[in-house]
Amino acid sequence: MFRPGRRALAAAPRVFWIERVIYAAFLVAVLLMALSSFGMILAGQSMHEWMLIVHMSVAGLFAVALTALAVLWAEQASFTRDPATRFYTGEKVAFWLTVAAGFSTILSAMLGMMSWFGTVGQSILLDVHRYSALVLLICAIFHGYRLLIGRPRVQPTVPTTTSPDPTVPLSTT
Predict the structure, then answer these.
(1) Each residue's pLDDT tens digit in the chain (173 positions)?
(2) Where are the domains of the chain?
């Protein structure tokens, strides 16, 4: 309907190396932003000087990478019953929570820079920014772990051509 004369998205050839580069950029951006912000909080200080510059410099890369991942993986991370989907259910939940928390982190940071909300509103936006960034970090760590090293191993099935032994009971109850 919205794409007349074009191939469906699922039929289009996928370029996985671009997705990997974008995902690597996203993970590096999340790591640098987490170290620059939560690292300063854990050290008992507020974010200032070089850590603030690192945080603000990486924010653009984070926003672009998050948007690109949301566009590239939205169809594959949908909650359909198609068995050929790329992600498991937990990965889909983590993906959508990462996207939602990421966009709320970006929005709260951008709105906090405006003087529209006053001091109290900016303080609330800063708290929203912090907590949505914490949710983002937890979900991104889970999603990255599952995609990079924590996927369940699929055991190859060997087809058997023999029929079951009729002397062995089928049920033990």
Answers:
(1) 343 444 444 544 566 888 889 999 999 999 999 999 988 888 888 888 899 999 999 999 999 999 999 999 888 888 887 766 678 888 889 999 999 999 999 999 999 998 898 999 999 999 999 999 999 999 999 988 888 887 766 665 655 555 555 565 665 55
(2) 15-79+86-148
DSSP, residue by residue, the chain = --STTS--GGGSPP-HHHHHHHHHHHHHHHHHHHHHHHHHHHTT----HHHHHHHHHHHHHHHHHHHHHHHHHTTTTS----TT-SS-HHHHHHHHHHHHHHHHHHHHHHHHTSSSSHHHHHHHHHHHHHHHHHHHHHHHHHHHHHHHT-PPPPPPPPP--SPPPTTS-S---
